[in-house]
Design brief:
By secondary structure, this protein is of the alpha/beta class. It has one domain: TIM Barrel (Alpha-Beta Barrel). Helices cover 44% and strands 15% of the residues. The protein is globular. The N and C termini lie far apart (58 Å).
């Protein structure tokens, strides 16, 4: 008989204003804001790769009174650590904890696509259990053969992480099915498979994960389909999976990977800047060919228990668009912090936009802006946007 997985240790106390990703997403699934319950909402998990990204996210969280979820990929940790992901963990978590001490909202930190199938990946996951508040054990793909990992092996490896993390109060996310596309150098796959409902029951019962990334048609990267087409998610399958999960434990949260939205205003802004530059690198058409996931589709997933929405590509696009605009405005600034501020402000706008549409506001305090008046516009500085919508 399979040994029962350990329950998540809810008595664990984290540094000031820090908590687990599961704690925050469970509030979203239950529609909890303040002392009341309402409609279900979702937490965008912002993949942050720079200190600017962290700063922008904290600003957005505070303005909206949102639950904050910051995710770190292996490649991002390498960037923070000068090539050493474990050192990057130390640097990034120390910075986030310092910021969180001054926060008026709750913050969770999460390892995205933690790999427990390789020696290097295991070291990062083990270190993350010690330094983050949540980890993903992505054992859905055999990195050597580049094929789907057998279910029994996926369960075995994921369960190892749960056995290590849950007693320490660290929530764990698993993945069942394979998601196609390329997010960065460490997260890519050439094929995709839907999650099998028959496998779901066994996976959840034997691993004990409280967060799960099923595959229902989303895709990593900026090209989620053919230009001119819309991504079609399998919402029917999502609801079928939710019924199975809720029977096992209605506190299980589903996670949408590859769910970045394409903002037409960001694309148009970037194309306009490239036209002003006479498109020196010949990438104008690449921008026009980007395909994202329509938010209407994501809203369908929220109804099916997807209360963690991973968000990365759209924010990278926003940052790059703003950088192009700043170079057109003034390409000879000696004080490079000016470019930093322009791009960080743009990121903040992108984060605010996603938090609003996901319904993640007024959770820990009343929002400081009128969300109906907020307009995401890279032609306008964040300072001037806030003049219009600050309460």
């Amino acid at each position: 008989m399979t040994k029962i997985p350990p329950k998540l240790n809810l008595a664990r106390r984290f540094p000031d204003n820090m908590t687990t990703a599961h704690s925050l997403t469970l509030k979203a699934k239950n529609g909890e804001k303040g002392n009341s319950k309402g409609e279900r909402y979702a937490l965008p998990a912002f993949n942050v790769t720079t200190f600017q990204g962290i700063n922008a996210a904290f600003t957005a969280f505070e303005l909206l009174g949102s639950s904050g979820l910051l995710a770190f990929s292996n490649s991002a940790l390498k960037h923070f650590g000068g090539g050493d992901p474990v050192f990057g963990l130390e640097v990034a978590t120390a910075y986030v904890e310092k910021k969180a001490k001054k926060a008026t909202v709750k913050i969770a930190t999460h390892l995205d696509h933690g790999d427990y199938t390789s020696e290097g990946g295991r070291k990062v996951v083990q270190a993350s259990v010690q330094m983050l508040t949540s980890v993903m054990a992505d054992n859905s793909t055999d990195k050597v053969t580049k094929t789907a990992m057998p279910l029994s092996k996926n369960i075995e490896l994921t369960r190892e992480v749960v056995d290590m993390a849950h007693p320490l109060g660290i929530s764990v996310e698993g993945e069942l099915g394979v998601l196609a596309g390329e997010e960065d150098e460490d997260t890519k796959s050439e094929f995709s498979t839907y999650t099998n409902p028959d496998d779901l029951d066994r996976f959840l019962r034997e691993t004990g994960v409280l967060m799960l990334a099923p595959t229902i048609g989303t895709m990593h990267g900026p090209n989620k389909g053919k230009p001119g087409t819309k991504v079609k998610l399998n919402i029917t399958l999502a609801h079928e999976l939710l019924k199975i999960a809720n029977v096992i434990n209605d506190e299980i949260i589903f996670v949408a990977h590859g769910a970045s939205t394409l903002y037409p205003n960001v694309v148009n802004y970037a194309v306009t800047q490239l036209d002003k530059m006479s498109d020196p690198s010949g990438v104008r058409q690449k921008w026009l060919d980007f395909v994202g996931t329509d938010w209407e589709q994501i809203q369908g997933l929220i109804g099916a228990g997807f209360c963690k929405i991973n968000t990365d590509t759209e924010n990278r696009q926003t940052f790059l668009s703003a950088l192009l605009g700043s170079l057109i405005t003034d390409s000879a600034k000696i004080d490079i912090r000016w470019y930093d501020n322009v791009c960080t402000d743009a990121l903040t706008q992108s984060y605010i936009q996603k938090l609003i549409v996901a319904g993640n506001h007024d959770v820990w305090q009343e929002t400081k802006i009128d969300v109906a008046k907020f307009k995401f516009d890279l032609n306008v500085s964040l300072k001037n946007i806030l003049k219009v919508c600050l309460i």
